[in-house]
Amino acid sequence: MLFYSFEEIIWMLAAAIAIDWLVGDPKWPTHPVIYIGRWIRFMERKLAATGNPASQKVKGILLTLSTILLSFAVMLLIVSAAQAIQEWLGYIVSTWFISTTIAIKGLKDAAYRVYVPLSNGDIQEARTYTGYIVGRDTAELGEAELTRAVVETVSENIVDAVIAPLFYAFLGAAPLAMLYRASNTLDSMVGYKSEKYLFFGWASARWDDVLNWIPARLTGLLLIFVALLQPGLSAKRAWRAIRRFAHLHPSPNSGIPESAVAGALGIELGGLNVYGGVASERARLGWPLRERTQRDIVGTVRILYGISFAVMGGLICVLLFL
User: Fold this and answer.
1) Cα separation of 302 and 261, whole Å?
2) In the chain, fewer beta carbons within 10 Å around the N or the C end?
3) How far apart are CA 205 and CA 195, in angstroms?
């Protein structure tokens, strides 16, 4: 049975963060999320998201269970096999796979693909790259709305792509971190409240909400801490924004990081989004103390890295006192 000591887990988490800082999220054919996505599409075709709401929910539950259990089992098998060959190989393999479940550098790169053309005055290219990371229509968006889309995406993903996978890696190393990544991938692929996925994706969306409940609240505390340390940010507003606005978000978790970042920066997030030509009004989070600008993308990325530095610092402190 796979087992790591507390100190070994801490070392692996610190190494995984360092790997992600340096390597990021390589788009290699061996990346586990690619195979998780293929499995989800394969099962979606086999189960067919049709029928009455009850049958669609049952099929969605089967999809969710098969995906998370298979991801956990395969990862457990791979890491256990590596450890059986050589103990140090088990550490390396587990650390590498943990690093594939987080995406600090990947989030920064995605944000800067929008920021760079915006700063160069190429709004069309900025719209194109924003469309790669959000589901809303971007063809008519101006700088303020493109900025909002990026800030909201990076803020929300501080939970999904940083704190939550590290939290589950702490509890169960690479197998549990990969189970979380599979759950999050399910939510991103079938967890929409669209006509097609409203019932079929119900289990995936709810399961993702459950897994993110604790990490989202840990992220809120970390965001307040980072806002306290970074010049130009307001920890007090971040805290007040969480209390005032987080519950207005349709997600029980995403409202926390988005409200905190909005409060820390002194801007308003949320508002009117358009999906496939259909307008949708989202809860407004934070106070519009000033207009949003492209510099808020940079500010949000700094918050993202501030979070990762805070976590790394905490891990190093734990190692020093062990």
Assistant:
1) 11
2) N
3) 14
Domain span including residue 238: 6-321
Do 56 and 48 contact (CB within 8 A), yes or no?
Answer: no
1, part of any domain: no
Among residues 249, 239, 243, the alpha carbon closest in space to that of 269 is found at 249
Q: What pLDDT, in 10s, does the model give residues 237-292?
A: 999 999 999 999 999 999 999 999 999 999 999 999 988 888 888 899 999 999 99
Beta bridge partners of 214: none
Residue 161: inside a domain = yes
Note whether residue 75 is domain-resident: yes
Amino acid at 74: V
Residue type for position 89:
L
Q: Residue 77 falls within a domain, yes or no?
A: yes
Q: Is 67 exposed, middle or buried (0-12, 13-18, 19+ CB in 10 A)?
A: buried
Report CA torsion sign: 15, 21, 27, 32.
positive
Q: Is residue 305 within 8 Å of 104, Cβ to Cβ? A: yes
253 near 213, Cβ under 8 Å? yes
Our count of domains for the chain comes to 1
CA dihedral sign of residues 143, 146, 151, 154: negative
Radius of gyration of the chain (CA): 20
